[in-house]
Amino acid sequence: MVDFKTVFSVSQFARHLNDHFRTEFGAIRIQGEVASFTRASSGHWYFGLKDSTAQLKAVMFRQRNILAGFLPAVGDKVEVLAQLAMYEQRGELQLIVDVMKKAGQGNLHEQYLQLKAKLSQEGLFDLNRKKPVPTVVFNLGVVTSLQAAALADVKQALARRAPHVKYTVYHTAVQGEQAAAQIIDALQKADAAGHEVLILCRGGGSLEDLWSFNIEAVVRAVAACKTPVVVGVGHESDVTLAEFAADLRAATPTAAAELISKPTQELLTQVHNLHSNLRRALRHRAQLLVQQLDRAEMRLLTPTAYVNALESKIHNALTRMPRLVQRQLQQHEAAVSNRGQSLTLEMRKAQALANQRSESAAAAIRMAQNRQLTAMESRLQRLGAVVEAVSPQRTLERGYAFLQPEVGDEVVRSVEQVKNGDNLRATLADGEIVLNVLEKTSLRGPSAKRKENSR
């Protein structure tokens, strides 16, 4: 209770009011519309909060506003946690704001956490249900808005890293009341089109801006796709429920394109290495087969060698026989003759068996060689098809061209290499045309600014 007899100075009474406000109100929550907004060079925010009948001045110092996560604008609906105080130098009441968030954001965040917990308990985010994403992609489906800066980021990343990747864009709104239904429809169409991978993406924004990607039906549609889905929404700090349900989450749309696009040059290097390894393997296999054939032939005893060995044995036996057993030799002459005939029959059988085994071994080796060569030729054809698909000629056939001076073989890579009035040769897939430079524009000019502003 203030004694009416007490006389205060202005400063004393102002401090007394401030103490009274802190004791009476403490921290209070106020919701209203931003009526005015100024961001000082010091980083502090000075703004007004209003409703239909009243208005309050407010200040949010830099060490507090850097935690807000957004920059308010006139007309925004916000909720603040503040203390009531008097600005003593001017004698004005104002709110000292500690926390600010967009009105309704707390409810959305609560819905986000509740749905996340529900779907997580169902196993919708489990790693064991995620489909593997191919390491090499040639056919891509992109689900986003045709006007989104995210689409430009994806196109730029693919053109820079992997021009061999063909992509189809499935247009959908990515924000607003109709966005969820359109996203689901576009996902289903893209999933049925036979792409190797799908990218679902959009740029950054507030929780409300990204809310279409937190709607349960959209999250379930992402999880239900038979085609592997990569989701890149917003900036690295933005995480939507659709990203938890995706087979692969990318921090940004550009990162999504980079994750599924193996550089063309790297693919060409791999194909070249595979071709070299295949040639070496073919030579090595052929050498092994030749060595196996040589060893098989060495193991086969020829009929001539067999006969020579027997004749040598007979000659040695006759030489060692003494003259005294000549009569005995005559008596056994018939037996020796019969034995000779038997040996002849045995040699013929041995020769026939040896010939049969030799022919069987040779046939088996030829069949093994043919099977191996057929498999290697088939693999070479597939690798050749991959090389053909990423060849410069194929790139020209897709509508690209490269420029050269009218005289000379140097390739024009920059507008700085030409001037107005120059004649250039443009090489297309089926021939050349001669062009005259009427005007040139650098990407550092207005077009670059327009491109930057479109993001």
TrEMBL record:
| Gene Ontology MF terms | exodeoxyribonuclease VII activity; nucleic acid binding
One of the protein's GO biological processes: DNA catabolic process
Where does the Exonuclease VII large subunit C-terminal domain lie?
A: 124-433
Query: Which InterPro entries is this protein grouped with?
Result: Exonuc_VII_L, Exonuc_VII_lsu_C, OB-fold_nuc-bd_dom
- GO CC annotations? cytoplasm; exodeoxyribonuclease VII complex
Write down the PANTHER family for this protein, in alphabetical order: EXODEOXYRIBONUCLEASE 7 LARGE SUBUNIT
Functionally, this protein is described as follows:
Bidirectionally degrades single-stranded DNA into large acid-insoluble oligonucleotides, which are then degraded further into small acid-soluble oligonucleotides.
Protein name (record): Exodeoxyribonuclease 7 large subunit
